[in-house]
Amino acid sequence: MFSTKEKVSEELLLEEETVKQSEIVLFNDDVNTFDHVIDTLIAVCEHTPEQAEQCSLIVHHNGRCTVKTGEYDDLKPKCTRLLQAGLSAELV
């Protein structure tokens, strides 16, 4: 027998699983400065300065980095803003 709290928790987990998580992937380029990438991630993706710096270093060394995850409809305008800022990003 489930307690009410356990049942609610189980239902929430099921709901979360049905929402498809998308991600914004940022790609390395030879155009943008670290400062521009960091400032843009802070402004668009609501990163802390530390998160933005870490992502910029990962992109620089690995060629790509997932910078934001969430629902597609929430991420689409953020990805568009990254592209408008001259960054190379893709929503997957």
TrEMBL record:
Keyword Iron among record annotations: no
Record carries keyword Protease: yes
Occurrences of domain Adaptor protein ClpS core (ranges): 21-85
Record InterPro entries: ClpS_core, Ribosomal_bL12_C/ClpS-like
Keywords for the protein's UniProt record, in alphabetical order: Hydrolase, Protease
Example of a GO MF term: peptidase activity
GO biological process per UniProt: proteolysis
Pfam families from the UniProt entry: ClpS
Designated name of the protein: ATP-dependent Clp protease adaptor ClpS
Species: Croceitalea marina
